[in-house]
Amino acid sequence: MYAAFVLAVPMFALLIEFIGYKTGDKRYDKLAHEFTSLLSVSFSFTATLGAILTFMLMILYPRFTSYLVSIFDKTFWPYGLLFFAEAGFLYSYYYGWGKFSPRVHLLLGVGLNIVGTAIMFIANAWLAFMTSPSGIDEAGNLVSTWDAVNNFIWMPINIHRMIANVCFGGAIAAAYAGFKFLGAKTKEEKAHYDWMGYVGNFIAISALLPLPFAGYWLGSEIYAFRAQMGMVLMGGAFSWLFIIQAVLIGMLFLGANYYLWLGMERIEGAEKYKKFVKYLLATITVCFVVWATPHSLVATVEEARKMGGAHHPILGILGVMSAKNTAVNIMILTTYISFLLYRRGNKVATVSWAPLGHTAQFLIFSVTIIFVIIIGVVGYFVEASVRIGLSVPQVISVLSAMISVTIIDIFLFRNARIVGQIKWGEIPARAQYMLFFLAVTFTWLMGLMGYVRSGLRLHWHVYEVMKDTSVDAFTPTLGFAATVVSSIVIIFFIFIMFNFWLTGLLHKKDWEPKT
Amino acid sequence: MKNIINIFVLTILTTLFYWYVAQMVPQKETHPPESAEIREDMSTDELIVVGEKIAMGKGTCFLCHTIGTEGARAPDMAGVGQRAATRKEGYSDIDYLAESLFEPAAYVVQGYNPIMTPAHKAPISLTQQEILAVIVYLQSLGGTPTVTMKTKLKYSADASATPAPTAVASSNGNAVSYDHLSGEELFNKYACMACHSLTDPIQLLGPSLYDVGNRLSRAEIYEAIIDPDAVVNEGFVKGIMSATLQGAGFDKDITPQQLRTMVKFLSEKKGS
User: Fold this and answer.
1) What are the E-state strand segments in A422-513?
2) Inter-chain CB proximity B73 and A138 less than 8 Å
């Protein structure tokens, strides 16, 4: 979790700094600097936790560790060197703020991100190899290091983690802003941290929207490697885990939308959009319920047979991927609509083609939603081999709709008439708690998905190559996994609160002896 | 301070909520598959029962296949015993079922994707006997079982030539057939009695295991087998047992099932 945070913050810090550089708005520069201030302590924590993990692997799983070393020994050198480079870039980026020309400083940020991403890609190769090994012979001996690195799920994991890290980093940074907002004494402070929380949350939600698509890719690569592993993931031992995931993501969507709706209260002129909130809420709730409908209601194969199939006779209609894919796509579109309403809260389009633009956007949304539903219904009447491919047109249509509506929106509201101000800082305290709720939910979700990514190997350390021959070679219950995940989340938040406190010391006055 | 307490309470409550959701779903521990006991003299009815157990357990067949309802991922198995004889021209039902298990991609039923992995290879790793039992079971679904444990499949040679991939600490295909042995039989098979006495409190090359169940917990017995140098009894030399086991290929042959059986057996040695 710390590693994800340390890799994510530089990504959006650089982006925000770049926006500040291009627009000349100093607020962005200050915001990027403040995000970066969270990094130095986190980096030390990450390195320490990484060292503990390595020692634990060597102590608890010596044979497995030595096997992985025999496969990936060539990657350890660049990994170590890149860590040095990461430290160099990170500290020069942070301590060099305002000390270099903006371009040089931006270059340091680019270097930091390149090195950080490379480190993540190398570490991802190790864990991806455990799930979908390649580059080895039938006896498990190394044939090609590059093939071992470039295994089936390596690149999907890279992309999925990169997006998820941004999501997670944005959520934690937003929680930091919420924490500071709640303790702020002045209006200026409240305004600053309100804005910071909004930007952090915006980054998190922007990254959340394409995340399911990256998830589809990862899932399809797992199926492509071994369909059976895919079955274990989605229809076997872990099928119920995805119901828990649906609850978490449903909460994320509900929470993110609620934060946007609360945010509209600080925008003069946004009152006219309030009437839509109930419809948006209803849509998200219905989609959430469909997505959280169990695929099957059984725990063992014997019970499935007694039921006459894997699906519940009634709920099974909604518990299949055709319904779930449809629900999640509509939920994504709905959240995007919430954002659009927020964005135009205090604006009125003045371009001559404004009515046409609004109609075009409405039509794009309507056609996309109808198309997504039709594809979902068609999924019930076609063969399995065809059904699997139907998620692609759904995803493409939703992405296309979001991109085309955004492009129209940019031109539609160019030189728009501003009918009110955004009163930063004038937002209910519950919005700040919502930022924390979202951060905890993101963290819990991350822990859960880390468990399934690792657990789907079942009793294999390296799938089909190295068995776990210990008496502990079983996959624990979801309840047990949830206890572990919950403990980790609480420990992480205790640590991160400590980080926030340490970072806050920067702005405290120096201690002076009482006279 | 109030804000920090509020945030802490919110964090705990949110975590507890998700924890609670996870406790509400069905709880199931997934254990490594266990091999079925198959004897050469088993009757057809007995083989059907064993074959069904393998298909549902270790074979993981019904993760995708169904019986009596249209399969979403893989074909319905109802009536396959009858269909199998007419699926491919020139193929008997045994040929077809054997091919489906050894080379599942050779013929894929229309409307489905080639998602099945060969049953004799990892991760399923069914033994020859287990595959025969599964074929008997499949024949019984609408057809007449004719396969026995003596039936020779044309894939037998291929299967032995391409064992499941193994690695440093993994078990191999040969070891699987010993999973049905009792703890005492395994103790003898791996020649543990050469160094350890089971019946008397006497010291051989290694300490007596006559009352090991009183002295060590299951976890400690497990550790003593897998990592014998972790704790060495006073008066015994470190490294001898690990070198002996390594030389005998114990690490490669032992399976989780065999380990469990041995640990259970030894933990019951209470000195009486």
Assistant:
1) 460-462, 466-467
2) no
Length of chain B: 272
- The whole-angstrom distance between B150's CA and the closest CA on chain A is 29
For position A359, what pLDDT does the model report? Answer: 94
User: Which tens digit of pLDDT belongs to each residue from B73-120?
Assistant: 788 898 898 888 888 888 888 999 999 999 988 888 888 877 888 888
Phi/psi of residue A348, nearest 5 degrees: -130, 125
Residues of chain A below pLDDT 70: 235-237, 295-316, 384-385, 388, 515
Q: What angle do CA A119, A125, A126 make, to 5 degrees?
A: 100
CA distance A497 to A42: 11
User: Residues 6 or more apart from A85 whose CB is under 8 A from it?
Assistant: A111, A115
Q: Which residues of A touch B259 (CB under 8 A)?
A: 469-471
Tens digits of residue pLDDT in B133-174: 999 999 999 888 888 888 888 776 544 433 333 333 333 333
Is A460:B123 a contact under the CB 8 Å cutoff? yes
Task: Summarize pLDDT for B16-52 with one digit per residue, the tens.
Answer: 999 999 998 878 888 887 777 788 888 888 889 999 9
To 5 degrees, how large is the angle CA A4–CA A9–CA A15?
135
How many residue pairs bridge chain A and chain B with CB atoms within 8 Å of each other? 213
Kindly state the tokens that stand for B5: 């307490």
Which residue among A229, A465, A489 places its CB closest to the CB of B15? A489
Interface of B with A in 18-77 (CB under 8 A): 18-19, 21-23, 25-32, 56-57, 60, 62-64, 66-69, 71-73
Check: CB of residue A148 under 8 Å from CB of residue A71. Answer: yes
Report how far Cα A26 is from the mean position of its chain's Cα atoms: 28
Cis-peptide, bond into residue A10, ω within 30° of zero: no
**Cα dist from B225 to A63, A107, B241, whole Å:** 15, 56, 9
pLDDT at residue A236 in the model: 66
ipTM above 0.90? Answer: no
Indicate yes or no: pTM above 0.95.
Answer: no
Helix (H, G, I), strand (E, B) or coil at B30: strand
Per-residue pLDDT, A146: 92
**Which residues, 6 or more positions from B245, have their beta carbon under 8 angstroms from its beta carbon?**
B190, B228, B251
